[in-house]
């Protein structure tokens, strides 16, 4: 597509429920990132996918968080047993290629999915 | 670890005022530096970047110079417009070997007519 699409744009859930957030990157972009933005704070790296390489999961805050990516297309971020501290905007970004490539590091972001855990 | 520190906001200016948003960083190696902008209701967009010391990134009237001696990358604009109202994020990626951007906390800018 023309840009990075994320859904849902807003999600309100009850504590303890599972949520799935979806990201559709720009067609042809091999690298995909998930970031979390808590209110008044900077972006916190969660996970990075690059082609068929093993994902970099070093930013996932707990084992309740997981993410998958199908080939070089859609990614889903799953949060199990949500807690109130999970409330944040979850941002997805894609780039033409990963670190070292000519298009590296120029990330295109989606508008984000705002998650509120009651 | 790598980190980026931005001046705290919010910043409120009148139209045509001069803008400076301070950004300093800590990183090993030779990072590339970026400014991203987030307009209301939209995703972050790359505003400008610099990949080595003394480089100046510029776009839409905004400028930032990579200062290795002061580990800074301050964002400036000579005359802001109402349409510049947004959140501005400073970011870096460590090179070699870095695979993801490290962001500052963002600075909210409001420009009044």
What's the quick description here?
Chain A is mainly β.
Could you walk me through the main structural features you see in this protein, from its secondary elements to its overall organization?
The complex is a heterodimer of chains A (118) and B (113). Chain A has strands spanning 5-7, 10-13, 19-24, 31-37, 43-50, 65-69, 75-79, 88-95, 108-109, 113-117. In chain A, strands 2, 4, 5, 8, 9 and 10 form a six-stranded mixed sheet that branches. Chain A has a four-stranded antiparallel sheet with strand order 1-3-7-6, with no helix packed on it. Chain A starts with a strand and ends with a strand. With 118 residues, chain A is mostly beta strands. Chain B is an all-beta fold and 113 residues long. Chain B has no helices and twelve strands. In chain B, the strands form three sheets. In chain B, strands 2, 5, 6, 10, 11 and 12 form a six-stranded mixed sheet that branches. Chain B has a four-stranded antiparallel sheet with strand order 3-9-8-7, with no helix packed on it. A two-stranded antiparallel ribbon of chain B has the order 1-4. Chain B starts with a strand and ends with a strand. Chain A binds chain B through residues 3-4, 33, 35, 40-43, 45, 48, 50, 56, 59, 91, 93, 98-100, 105-112, and chain B through 4, 6, 32, 34, 36, 41-46, 49, 89, 91, 93, 95-106.
């Amino acid at each position: 597509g023309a840009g990075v699409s994320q859904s849902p744009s807003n999600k309100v859930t009850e504590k303890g429920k599972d949520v799935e957030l979806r990201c559709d990157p720009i067609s042809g972009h091999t690298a995909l990132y998930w970031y979390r933005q808590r209110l008044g704070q900077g972006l916190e790296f969660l996970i990075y996918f690059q082609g068929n390489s093993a994902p970099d999961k070093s930013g996932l805050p707990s084992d309740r968080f997981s993410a998958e990516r199908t080939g070089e297309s859609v990614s889903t971020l799953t949060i199990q047993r949500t807690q109130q501290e999970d409330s944040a905007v979850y941002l997805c970004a894609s780039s033409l290629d990963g670190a070292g490539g000519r298009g590296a590091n120029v990330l295109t972001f989606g508008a984000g999915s705002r998650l509120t855990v009651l | 670890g790598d980190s980026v520190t931005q001046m705290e906001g919010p910043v409120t200016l009148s139209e045509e005022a001069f803008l400076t948003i301070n950004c300093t960083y800590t990183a090993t190696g030779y990072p590339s530096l970026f400014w991203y902008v987030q307009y209301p209701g939209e995703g972050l967009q790359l505003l400008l970047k610099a990949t080595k010391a003394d480089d100046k990134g510029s776009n839409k009237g905004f400028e930032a110079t990579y200062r290795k001696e002061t580990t800074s990358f301050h964002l400036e604009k000579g005359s802001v417009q109402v349409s510049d109202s947004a959140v501005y994020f400073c970011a870096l990626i460590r090179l070699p070997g870095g695979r993801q951007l490290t962001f500052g906390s963002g600075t909210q800018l409001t420009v009044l007519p």
